[in-house]
Specification:
The protein is built from four helices and two strands; from the N terminus they run ααααββ. By secondary structure, the chain is of the alpha+beta class. It has a two-stranded antiparallel ribbon. The longest helix is centred in the first third of the chain and has 15 residues. The protein starts with 8 loop residues before the first helix and ends in a 12-residue tail after the last strand.
């Protein structure tokens, strides 16, 4: 019942055994732990990657995005109104 039109039963059984080994067996669990901790402490690696990443281009994009909003003070605080966006369509445009 494992045989299909593209694979034999033996090939599918091998594939299912491999999937079990990777996902559910003790081997899979050990492999997952190895992959997780091989390069060192997770928090240290996160700090190192954060410090290596150049955030300036992203920060500039955020600043440009925020510059696209006008801020008006309402009765209960700050209300934002979006400026005209080139992506926004008017009813008479196609």
């Amino acid at each position: 019942y494992l045989e299909t039109d593209t694979r034999t039963a033996r090939e599918r059984a091998k594939l299912f055994h491999l999937a079990w080994d990777v996902a559910c067996s003790a081997f899979g669990g050990r492999q997952q732990l190895y992959e997780r901790f091989f390069q060192g402490d997770i928090l240290r690696n996160a700090v190192v990657l954060t410090n290596l990443y150049d955030a300036q281009p992203l920060m500039e994009r955020v600043r440009q995005f925020l510059a696209g909003f006008l801020v008006a003070t309402g009765n209960n605080g700050v209300v934002t109104f979006p400026r005209e966006s080139p992506r926004r369509r008017t009813p008479d445009s196609s």
